[in-house]
Amino acid sequence: MVIPVNPPPLDRTSPPQTAEAGPCPASALPEGVRIRVLRVVYDDPRAAAELVPRLTARQAAGADPLPVEPAELAPRLLHALRREIRALPDDTRLLLLLAAADQYPVATHAFLRAVTAVRVDTRPLEAAETAGVAHASAGGVFFRDAWTRIAAYETASAADRRAAHQLLARVLGGKGETTRRSWHRGAAALGPSARLAAELRPAADRARAEGRPALARALAERAAELSPDPVAEARLLALAAADAWRSGEPDRARRLAARTDNSALDGVLALRVGNAAEAFDALLTAAVRQERSADAAGLLVLAAEAAVYTGDLRRCREAQVIAHWLGLAPSGVLAGLAAAVEGRYDEARVLLKGTAGRCGPGGDPGLLIHSGIAALMLGDPTRAATATLRAAASARARGTPGTVVQAMEFRVYADFWTGRTRAAEAATQEALHQAYAIGQDNGACHLQAALAMFAAVTGDEEACRERAAAVRPYALAHGLGLPAALAQWALAFLDLTHGRFPAAAARLRALAGFGPGHGHRAIRHLATPHYVEAAVRTGDTRVARAAHADYDRWATAVRSPDDLALSARCRALLAPGAEAVPHYRTALDLHARGTRDFERARTELLFAGALRRIRQRTEARDRLHSALEAFESFGAPHCAAQARAELRALGTPLAPNPGADPAAVLTAQQLMVARMAAEGATNREIADRLNLSPRTIDHHLRGVFSRLGIRSRIELVRLLGEPT
């Protein structure tokens, strides 16, 4: 069987591997390189085993991009599969070629129409099925694996490959099939063609606009290969590199970018996988050079992200100046960060609030991420969670997995603040794997720092130290002040909750003084309440009072109940004896209006200690039971151990007693809530009657069930009597 198109032959060969290979066992590869190796070889362990020993030292370390062409990845495996394909009958091989050309490297779903159009008998595919190479169904041809499909395509002669593409282009004539038809026409070209390059460029633009960056990359790269104009070729290569990066092909993106001189592309790659400080300069330079204001505005948004990553927030002012010079309105995050750094907290709140409010569904994922960042700075994790979730959904719809990872980087903070530690940890692990797979190494460092933070909260000292140890050297080498500061905070919080107060105070004091690339102003705000606690425990409160004064200014400006609660807690810690009590009560009242349940539990623990010291034992016991239940629900055993130690000091039994009198084992407020629940009141009704939030009532009921050893309201009714 011969496909009825007769072009002249043209042989193509894969580019040779020029770098010297060095032996490197897979176990010695960094986690990110291991994951990318598997992804680039289609998760095939045979190809991975062949590729790893052939990597150069720089490739094995992640400094240079991995190979991307099949002949470079696993030549021995490909050779063996080609030999297997060549053993099949000619008619079978040509049908497999047509099916492979329809799927690789761009899926166009035209195989069945093609064989129908030329009235080709598909029974020869039975030989492929017998050999276990592929099988045919009503949906088309399914290959055994990706490498067999590649072998079926590359085993054929150049003439037959061109004939297959021409046939597929001919049958793709329907509405909406222009882009895929252009791909096949370009793939069938003999050599440079200005006409075909001109056809492929708008096809790539359409694919990009439709949210198909992988297809846009293939079209732009092929257009560059066909372009006889070196200037046009460079522009197309830059577009192809950007599309490759957006579609999660980091190694191809870096290889294509190396063939261009494009400061915008250099800035994006530096931001995600290089030095973030250098990224800021490259992005500002590119913004100034842009002819279109929309492109310049987008680059300034990325510059704001670089400032967030590095912790050099003062440079936001520099980006603002560029925006005004270009006649652009600076982004809310950019302007808000600049105002916050300069101490203009009220102005920063207004700017950030405007940005945080732009978190409607279906919007631009980059702007939604900025909405989430602004909400986090304003102490509104609920809005931050909404914005980042919508950013991830929008990025998935647009086919940009890298942006999904970036959204997850900031979503973890919202989960952290609201106490969803275990679920957030699992989501972060998944995002970390994805970040490595698509070459977002700087984002992976940020996620590693988040995992250190979660480990500190859950008391997993070994995991916390392991994650922090992985973060610090990478962060410092790449100018990433945000993850570096997070890792430092995680270690300090671990020290604080294990009673190592001098070590915690020293780490947090150092964090406050770290400059760009080493620390982060936003993390200093995160750390201030814990620094005050550690400083009070060590008896050194001079610097702590100054830190609290600045934190209180920020909390007062942003008006976040949780930040105000933590400021009141700091004031209580700094107050002597009984003078602390009203400040603790203020803090708990504010916590009841906020969302940071974990910090609320820590406030109750500290309050209970203060109450015990002034011999208010009954209320101290109530506060400790409430804190203990919260720590157990959050999975924070080290904090729960602190609460138990305080309870033991009060002589309180800790184990739940199902047979005990509820009045003997419940706190006064728990007993009140339990009686109302037994009478049939809903959580909302109880909250209204007690002037508390439904979240607080739910918290109290969990404690009631835990102490009484029951699981439902029905059992509660039996214990406390039928409702009248």
Task: Describe the overall structure.
It is a single chain. With 724 residues, the protein is mainly alpha-helical. Among the domains are: 1-17 and 67-190, no CATH class; 331-432; 656-724, Winged helix-like DNA-binding domain superfamily/Winged helix DNA-binding domain (Arc Repressor Mutant, subunit A). Helices cover 71% and strands 1% of the residues. The protein has 41 helices and 2 strands. Strands 1-2 form a two-stranded antiparallel ribbon. β1 and β2 form a beta hairpin. α26 runs antiparallel to α27 (461-477). Mean pLDDT is 85; it is low at 1-23.
Give a summary of the structure in a few sentences.
The chain has 41 helices and 2 strands. By secondary structure, it is an all-alpha fold. The longest helix has 18 residues.
Largest sheet: 2 strands, antiparallel
Number of strands: 2
Coarse morphology: elongated
> Helix fraction?
over 70%
Question: What's the gyration radius in Å?
Answer: 31 Å
Beta-strand percent range: under 5%
Coarse structural class: mainly alpha
Query: What's the average pLDDT?
Result: 85
**Major beta sheet, strand line-up:** 1-2
Helical segment count: 41
Distance between the termini: 88 Å
Low-confidence stretches: 1-23
